């Protein structure tokens, strides 16, 4: 059996390397103290895969990592600036992130967990999972999808608006990415927009509004309910880019279609729309398949969370999830990472005493 490590952090994005920072402050060293396993090819988390038109001045707000200010601004590509920042952070704090390492399965064993990975097996006493959602894009079932003769893709696979020039693009989804990409693509070609609910744009995107949304997410986590999009509680921010798109008339939306046809989509009233491309901006799901042997989910499909910032799995105090619930954002990642490390180490040290 592999030598025992105190803590494994699965995932090397913002939450994962922030957890590494707090583990070092707790006195643990890479190797015997903790190991960070990241399946991505390089530093940067999901940022390294973002589309080139996403720049620092048009992202949702970026929150710096603990212990290292982030000072870049402007039209720099987020996919360039953020990996550079993460790389500097990993080297400054000697986090020794191992990549690319794919964690295939986590099993409970006596006094801890066994991790089967592409780099061999690891045994650990505690687990911090920070795998996020980027690797699990979600496309809802749509009748007739297989018959469509055009192209279908997800936000995950989007690169530039120019690739759609001369095509009619149907954007599906009511979140921030849908609104952003709709605005971009509509500058080079014809677009249409469908959402399940009428989008709500807000100009007063205040701290109180965010706190109310987080409180709702936290309550669902405590009750073990499946997670929902935070946008459903906060609304969409009314940015200069969105205002410009509205002036061009591209924000007119239609309700969700009932079926996909070989040439487009159709609605229950019989109306149709021919399109060349369907862009699914329908969000992501939590990448937790490797934790399936731990049976974290309840019969409703949710995970009951506890702890000060709801990072600890109820009934499994040696397992913490970062990026689940209200920690699934850059604003919550740092605080959640610190809380997870403190609670996990207190538990492990108490058990060893």
Task: Give keywords.
353 residues; alpha/beta; FAD/NAD(P)-binding domain; five-stranded parallel β-sheet
Assign an overall shape.
Answer: globular
* Number of distinct beta strands: 18
In terms of DSSP E residues, the strand content is 15-25%
| Architecture per CATH nomenclature, i.e. the level-2 architecture of the largest domain | 3-Layer(bba) Sandwich
- Counted up, domains total 2
Total helix count?
7
Mean pLDDT: 92
Radius of gyration: 21 Å
Question: Can you walk through the features of this model?
Answer:
With about 350 residues, the chain is of the alpha/beta class. The two termini are about 25 Å apart. The model has no long low-confidence stretch (mean pLDDT about 90). The longest helix has 23 residues, at about 330-350. It contains 7 helices and 18 strands.
Quick overview:
The chain has 353 residues and is an alpha/beta fold. The protein is 25% helix and 22% strand. Strands 1, 2, 3, 4, 5, 16, 17 and 18 form an 8-stranded mixed beta sheet that branches. A 5-stranded parallel beta sheet has the order 6-15-7-8-11, with helices on one face. A 3-stranded antiparallel beta sheet has the order 12-13-14, with no helix packed on it.
SSE order and pairing:
Elements: E1 4-10, H1 14-25, E2 34-37, H2 78-92, E3 103-109, E4 112-117, E5 120-129, E6 151-154, E7 168-172, H3 176-185, E8 190-195, E9 201-202, H4 207-223, H5 231-234, E10 236-237, H6 240-247, E11 253-255, E12 259-261, E13 264-266, E14 272-274, E15 277-280, E16 305-306, E17 312-313, E18 316-321, H7 330-352
Parallel strand pairs: 1-2, 1-5, 5-18, 6-15, 7-8, 7-15, 8-11, 9-10
Antiparallel strand pairs: 3-4, 4-5, 12-13, 13-14, 16-17, 17-18
Helix pairs in contact: 1-7, 3-6
